[in-house]
Design brief:
By secondary structure, the chain is an alpha/beta fold. The protein contains 15 helices and eleven strands. Strands 8-7-6-5-4-1-9-10-11 form a nine-stranded mixed beta sheet, with helices on one face. It has a two-stranded parallel ribbon with strand order 2-3.
Length: about 400
């Protein structure tokens, strides 16, 4: 028998492009949040309900229903599934949910703070391999880390969890939020990840909470110029910004105007299901959510999300005609969280985008202080804590949905 020619290999993004999953609106990327509870109290977190909250636990999907939801996700054609929270390992049935998702053929990523990665959990990931485990690391010293998390002893538990995963060769990535409190240790965190042979990433753009809690800005948010300096000193981050700058150049032109509010993959190729069985287009917004106990996944995806994706701009907001969008962390979701309005501007993010543009030499016609888009005579302060922009309790007009900011393939 002659040897068969090897099958050509292609990347997952190439496969998605070949299938035209965006044009056909196929839900290939999903997020399942089994719990919003967390054993840490991170000062910046957009959702972290108390770990021992009986009320929250009672609201969460029971095991049987959560397993059925995973079946619906798989049956709909999903390939990538992110399990996150809250701290997903607080669910006593995590192992059942996780292994069931793998058994249904899903490529599973797990987001965790690492402090609950016991020997048993590490062995589970060793036996049944995830696509990736991402562990949040909020400092490289105990004082810094625990100032952020608010829980004594959490630093050593996090490091112990990381070591257990590394010892077993579990696919691992470390990440952090770049805060005013921990920015001085970003380089040390990068070095630590490199010493372990794992990737590291950080994000300096904080969103408000999604669950009626106070906004996490104030002295926690890294000021725009300090964030830019951090990014420009980092070769990897600088390369990403340079790539985004090329996209800005491609958008240059006097007639630029986005017709649809939604320009990313939320509701087009991706979705989120919260701990209570409500399905929404992405993680940031909780206002336009549809109950999977009342409607099927197919109906929500095909009918509800299809209508939301078709929404056109209702205002002449500066964001609609701004070619700095590739450098901007704002999106309808961030705007909704801050203001309750998906078409509103987020001043802090707008300022960062303009500083990035000036540093990279793009964005002709824009001013460094962002007053060209914000229409103000001086730099803005971070927005005040409003609290309920994302959950719909505020009186801010009809409930609208939003999408997450665009992500590029790694």
């Amino acid at each position: 028998m002659s040897e068969s020619a090897p099958l050509p290999e292609i990347t997952l993004p190439e496969l998605f492009a070949e299938w035209d999953v965006a044009g056909r609106r196929v839900p290939v990327e999903g997020v399942l949040e089994p719990t919003f509870r967390c054993n840490l109290r991170c000062v910046h977190c957009y959702v972290n309900q108390p770990a021992a909250s009986a009320e929250e636990r009672a609201r969460e999907l029971p095991t049987a229903r959560a397993l059925a939801v995973i079946d619906e996700i798989a049956d709909a054609g999903c390939l990538n599934l992110l399990l996150t929270g809250g701290e997903v390992l607080l669910r006593s049935d995590f192992e059942r949910l996780y292994t069931h998702a793998l058994a249904r053929g899903l490529l599973v990523t797990v987001f965790t703070n690492g402090t609950l990665v016991t020997e048993h959990v590490a062995d589970l990931f060793d036996r049944h391999r995830p696509l990736l485990v991402e562990v949040s690391l909020y400092g490289m010293t105990q004082p810094t880390y625990e100032r952020v998390t608010g829980v004594p002893g959490s630093f050593e538990r996090c490091l112990a969890g990381i070591r257990r995963l590394v010892d077993r060769g579990v696919p691992l990535k470390l990440k952090t939020m770049a805060l005013a409190w921990n920015a001085h240790e970003i380089a040390a965190m990068q070095d630590f990840a490199a010493s372990l042979g794992v990737a590291f990433r950080y994000d300096g753009l904080l969103n408000a909470r999604v669950d009626c809690g106070a906004s996490r800005h104030g002295d926690v948010q890294l000021p725009p110029r300090e964030l830019l300096a951090l990014e420009l000193e980092d070769p990897e981050q600088r390369a990403k910004l340079a790539h985004s700058a090329d996209d800005v150049r491609a958008l240059a032109g006097p007639d630029l105007a986005f017709e649809q509010v939604y320009t990313c993959g939320a509701g087009q190729v991706s979705f989120t299901i919260d701990p209570y069985g409500r399905m929404q287009m992405c993680q940031l917004s909780r206002r336009a959510a549809f109950d999977l106990s009342q409607e099927s996944f197919a109906t929500i995806w095909g009918v509800r999300f299809g209508a939301l994706r078709a929404r056109s701009w209702q205002t002449d907001a500066a964001c609609r005609t701004c070619n700095l969008q590739p450098l901007c962390g704002s999106c309808p979701g961030a705007a909704e969280l801050e203001t309750g309005d998906i078409e509103a501007q987020v001043p802090h993010f707008c300022e960062i985008a303009h500083l990035r543009a000036q540093a990279l030499g793009v964005g002709e016609g824009h001013r460094e202080d962002a007053t060209c888009c914000l229409g103000r005579g001086s730099r803005t302060a971070p927005p005040p804590a409003t609290g309920c922009g994302g959950c719909g309790h505020r009186e801010a007009g009809p409930a609208l949905v939003q999408i997450e900011r665009r992500r590029r393939p790694a």
